[in-house]
Amino acid sequence: MQQYEITYKETGDKFYCKEDESLLACMRRNNNGPVQIGCFGGGCGRCKVQILEGEYHKFKKMSRAHISEEDEKQGIVLACCIKPRGSITVTTAPN
Question: CATH number of the domain that 69 lies in?
Answer without folding.
Answer: 3.10.20.30
